[in-house]
Design brief:
- The strands form 2 sheets. Strands 1, 2, 3, 4, 5 and 6 form a 6-stranded mixed β-sheet that branches.
- With 282 residues, the chain is α+β, with helices and mostly antiparallel strands.
- It contains 10 helices and 10 strands.
- It has 2 domains: 119 residues, Cytochrome b5-like heme/steroid binding domain (Flavocytochrome B2, Chain A, domain 1, Roll); 108 residues.
- The chain binds protoporphyrin IX containing FE.
- The site of protoporphyrin IX containing FE has 22 residues, from α3, α4 and α5.
Length: 282
């Protein structure tokens, strides 16, 4: 390695350590010791709500209350953007200048200048920003405000997807064997629980189970399959694992034992539906 290369490597290492130092100090300066807040004046949600306009604008962000009346004319947007959060728990707005884009550390630093107190409930207990946002649907108190609609942080569908949980919605799935559909199932998930389970198709070889009537030889088997869906209704999605032992979900009807049931086919169709994802939003 010649001298130039050594000097270059040393320079790069120096820049890298400098950047690390800068980011570590930026991170630690954004952390806050909660005990610092005990000395701040307690301000209730009702008091906060009284300062909801340009003549007096207070906002609560992360449990602290700021009087930003003097700053309003300096904010780099149309005044309505920032005015609509006056008198509110405004943490969500603070973190979503645009959907998913928080304010810069420079803006964060400016807040300190306007600090006037800490947000408390009627009992004088600190109010968590999430708790306020949840209680009112969103921080703005309007279920369909732009902030609630556009904020990825408040998008429950996205959160469930990121956690790998099946989304609530309407599903359809099939079990196919040698190119022939045997089970075609449809259901909704509501809060992760099955509702409105039904077969769109249930057949084996030439027997169409859904067309069977009382008295038909295989009618009891069709009843058992229906029973399974009735018993899954309202259950969490994990209940499908009980189908590996179908006797837990279906009775012995007219001498047809659980052995005639093919619980595995139903599990397969349900899992196919879940893998395909939401078919439509009910
Ligand atoms: C909570 C309600 C607020 C909302 C919805 C909001 C929204 C916005 C928007 C839309 C922009 C311009 C877009 C952009 O730069 O990407 C912006 C920029 C900015 N805002 Fe706010 N703002 C709020 C509160 C505040 C407060 C209380 C302060 C300071 C005391 C502040 C300081 C700034 C600054 C310095 C910028 C320039 C860009 C930056 O550094 O992030 N904002 N804000």
């Amino acid at each position: 390695m010649n001298m130039n290369k050594i000097a270059y490597s040393v320079f790069i290492a120096f820049v890298a350590s400098l950047l690390t130092l800068i980011s570590v100090s930026a991170l630690s300066s954004s952390e806050r010791d909660e005990t610092d807040d005990e000395g701040l004046k307690p301000i209730t949600l009702d008091e906060l709500a009284e300062h909801d306009g340009a003549e007096s604008c207070w906002k609560a962000i992360h449990g602290r209350v700021y009087d930003i009346t003097d700053y309003l004319p300096n904010h780099p947007t149309d005044p309505t953007v920032i005015l609509e959060w006056c008198g509110q728990e405004a943490t969500e707005g603070w973190h979503n200048k645009r959907p998913g884009v928080p304010h810069s550390p420079r803006a964060e630093g400016m807040l300190e200048e306007y600090l006037i107190g800490r947000l408390v409930d009627e009992e004088g207990e600190p109010v968590e920003s999430e708790a306020v946002a949840d209680a009112s649907g969103n921080a703005n108190g309007e279920a369909d405000s732009d902030h609630a609609r556009l904020s990825p942080a408040g998008d429950e569908r996205l959160q469930r997807a990121l956690l790998g949980l099946p989304l609530d919605g309407h599903y359809r799935g099939v079990f196919v064997d040698r190119g022939v559909i045997q089970v075609n199932i449809t259901f909704n998930l509501e809060d992760g629980h099955f509702t409105r389970l039904d077969y769109r198709h249930l057949a084996y070889r030439d027997d169409d189970y859904l067309a069977m009537e009382e008295g038909d030889e295989l009618y009891p088997v069709m009843r058992q399959h229906r029973q399974i869906l009735e018993r899954l209704e309202g259950e969490p999605v994990t209940a499908i694992f009980a189908l590996y032992e179908p006797e837990r979900l279906a009775d012995d009807i007219d001498g047809y034992s659980s052995a005639t049931l093919r619980g595995a086919k139903i599990i397969s169709a349900i899992r196919d539906a879940l893998n395909r994802g939401v078919y439509s939003w009910p």
